[in-house]
Amino acid sequence: MPPRLRLLGFAVVMTVVALTMSGEPAAAGPAVCQAKNGPVSWKPCLPLALSAGALVGGLTGLFGVGGGFLIGPALTLLLGINASAAVATSQVIITVNSVAGLIAHTNVALDWAIVGNFAGAAVLAALGAGALATRLPVRTVRRAFVYAVLVLAVATAVTAVVAPATVLAH
Questions:
Q1: Which residue has better confidence, 34 or 63?
Q2: How many beta carbons lie within 10 A of that of residue 40, not counting itself?
Q3: How far is Cα 82 from Cα 136, in angstroms, rounded to an integer?
Q4: Diameter of the chain by CA atoms?
Q5: What pLDDT, in 10s, does the model give residues 73-123?
Q6: pTM, 2 dp
Q7: Which residues contact 10 (CB under 8 A, 6 or more apart)?
Q8: Residue 51 CB contacts under 8 Å (≥ 6 apart), including other chains
Q9: Cβ contact 15:150 at 8 Å
Q10: Which residues pair with 34 in a beta bridge?
Q11: Could you tell me if 6 and 59 are in contact, meaning their C-beta atoms sit under 8 angstroms apart?
Q12: Contact yes or no for 156/11 (Cβ under 8 A)
């Protein structure tokens, strides 16, 4: 797939996720998998969970992204999992997916200084943001997510349109 088309497709996916997440939390999720803070009901949930997982995996493979950006909304909006359980579940899925991605790319030489600095900063920021998120209203966190994703979608679309082909090829 040409890099410009891939970037534009990714911008569209980001916009769809942001607009879908912009709805009120009460309207999200059909509670197919989890009744209000109760256990997961697997009989009705399994086909939907497999379908949502395949969709997220396909988008991850196609665009090289996934993580909480796609998994969290899939868990809350499609499966009806409550937000706290969705965040924790998303982190486990991201870890498993990351290990699979690392194994698939073991032939690439890594600059361990970049890995260490980037990972260290990301871990510290995640711990701080996680502590802050528990103190903020859910609506505020959702809005911040929606706005951040929309800004990134616009930036990605603009990059896809105006960036020289040589930049996109790398």
A1: 63
A2: 17
A3: 17
A4: 52
A5: 888 888 878 777 788 888 898 888 778 877 877 787 888 999 999 999 999
A6: 0.72
A7: 63, 65, 156
A8: none
A9: yes
A10: 40
A11: no
A12: yes
